[in-house]
Structure formats: C-alpha cells, structure tokens
Amino acid sequence: MAGVESEDIGSKSVIHGLYDRCMDWISGPYGAYALFLIAFVESSFFPLPPDVFLIAMCVAIPLNSFRYAAICSVGSVLGGAFGYGLGYWFMDSVGMPIVQWYGLSAKYEMVQHYFKEYDVWIVGTAGFTPIPYKLFTITAGFVHSNFFTFMIVSLVARSARFFLVAGLIRKFGPWIQTFINRYFNVLSLLFVVLLVAGFALVKYFL
Q1: Average pLDDT of each block of 10 consecutive residues along the chain (206 residues)?
Q2: TM spans, by residue (predicted)?
Q3: What is the CA radius of gyration of the chain?
Q4: Where are the domains of the chain?
C-alpha cells in the first residue's frame, strides 16, 4: 500500500509541476503560443485540460477572451487530428500505451462500442464534456471514422466549450471563474442534452 501511495503522490507532484510550468508559460510574452501548444498536446496525450489556462488568460485580459478561445479551439482540433493519426497509424506502438498510461484500458473497450453505435458523432460529447477527449481522438483514428466528419464535429464541440468559458468571463468578469470551476460538469450535461435533442429533431424532420 505504501508503494501505491508513494506512486500516487509522485504522480500528483509531476502534474503539479507541469501545471506550474504551464502557468509560467502563459504568463510570459508568448502566452498565446503556449496556450495553443497546451491545447494541441492535450488532445492526444497531455494530462492537463487547456480550460484552466484559458480561464487564467481570460481573467487577466477579458477583452481578449474570444481571441484566446479561438486559439484554444484551433489548437485543440489540430491536436485532435494528431491524436486521430496516432490511432490510425500507430495504435499498437503509441496509441495504446497512452490509453494504458491514463488507466483507461477498460473504458477504451466501452468507447469502441460507442463508436460502433453512434459513429464519430460521439466525439461531440467528448469534445465538450470532461470526458477525456484524447481517448476519443485516438479511438476515432483506430476505428477509421470519417476524418472530415471527425474534424467538423470536433471543431463545433471544442469551440462551443471554449467560447462558452470565454464568453462567461468576458460578460461577468473574474468572479464567474469559481462558478465555472464548480458547475462545469452540470453545464456540460446541459449542453449534451441540448445536443442530443438537436440531433433527434434533425433526424425527425429530415
């Protein structure tokens, strides 16, 4: 047990160190580039979500909130394409080790089932909610989902997520940061309900 606990503490300290380093990067003169890079790598293997850094930059300069959201969205979607490529060409050598490193092997089987049932549209849920987006980008490549549809769905979902955060901060100021952190899961669930309802309406009327 002591060995497991020490491993968890070591993992947390690594994550905390990465967080501190990323905060230093976004606080510097090349903050926007750092935000883009963080959003890019998070979509395939990086453990820290870009939202926390997007929020910090939006709080620092609210007038640039939508610009930061756009940077975050583009970086994340391009990173998603990279994750798709890992799953498509390098699943055994790179993709699966990433899945295993995060302890998501069991969930990976479930995600494959979701792809069989909902195809690439399931990426829309992962792109907006706290579900690990990287797990879905890699799996989408492995199951050879339609790449064009994957990119469109990712762009819509990731942009909705990041622009919602940026819009709330721009409108209400720094105090909304606590609200977002506390109720992001609820907001995500609401969005998914609306998304599913929208798909149902489109399917019904078309």
Answers
A1: 42 66 83 93 85 85 92 96 94 85 75 78 77 85 91 92 88 68 59 51 42
A2: 33-61, 68-91, 182-205
A3: 17
A4: 2-205
Provide the 8-state DSSP code for 175: T
Instruction: Compute the half-sphere exposure of residue 47: CA atoms within 13 Å on the CB side of its CA.
Output: 14
End-to-end CA gap in the chain: 57
* Residue 100: CA count within 13 A, CB half-sphere: 7
- Rounded to whole angstroms, how far apart are CA atoms 181 and 200? 30
Task: Tell me which amino acid residue 194 is.
Answer: L
Element counts in the chain: helices (H) and strands (E): 10, 0
Neighbouring residues of 158: CB distance < 8 A, sequence distance ≥ 6: 72, 73, 76, 77, 80, 127, 128, 133
Total residue length of the chain: 206
Shortest CA distance to 147 belongs to which of 185, 119, 175? 119
Task: Please tell me what DSSP assigns to residue 49.
Answer: -
